[in-house]
Amino acid sequence: MELGLAGKTAVITGGSLGIGRAIARELAQEGVAVAIIARDAGRLDAAAAEIARETNARCVAVPADLTDAGQLAAAISKAQAALGDIDILVNNAGATPMGRIGDTQDETWMKSINLKLMGYMRCARLLTPAMRQRRWGRVINIIGRSGHQPRPNYITGSAVNASLLSFTLALAAECAPDNVLVTGVNPGPIATPRWDTVVSQGAADMGRSADAENAAAISTVALGRVGTPEECSGLVAFLCSDRASFITGTNIDIDGGGTRCI
Known about the structure:
Blueprint: E1 9-13, H1 18-29, E2 33-38, H2 41-55, E3 59-63, H3 69-83, E4 88-91, H4 106-134, E5 137-142, H5 155-175, E6 180-187, H6 193-206, H7 210-218, H8 229-240, E7 250-254
Helix pairs in contact: 1-2, 1-8, 3-4, 4-5, 6-7
């Protein structure tokens, strides 16, 4: 399927690992010039070099801590200086730790809110005005299914993700008249370093082995397996294209049939 993305530009936060890195590579394969943002400068540089080598597309590494509003704004400015106008924003940075309410301190709540909810909002606030002026743009928010399928041992993440589901729909309604499309993607269990951490934390909470915790998680997936980052990145690339030009203001689960709410 020809997606017609060649010549577009994109910013992907959390682009050095897992789903974010797979999205950056997928878009680069489609001819998109990408800027990836994450905290670990060494890992980010290595990811950018590998993506550029594999795809023959431009991939720029921009290190920044997205909990710091000043660093985030500077990172977006660097991405714009390197690539020009930004057509696509993929908000992906932000990992909330597992934990029940009694075990989760205010600092954890505030860090999670500042990194994921506020980070997504700040990126969108910085980049959507120019997209709207040009009357073309895409914002893809990588959120997570716990926003509409909350869990007591992931109470902070469930609350933050629920906020992002609402934020996505509200932003989509605001931007739609200017042909800027905003969509949420909710991954289920995906084989990434983040998933390994979630399994480890969940195992500790439930008092069982990591293998048992992983098996319990997989048992909730209709397809009976963990997904891959590439299964997420293909969907995101499609949503960025004009083949998806009538899709906005919705949240799409990609979880092997594990979410059964209406």
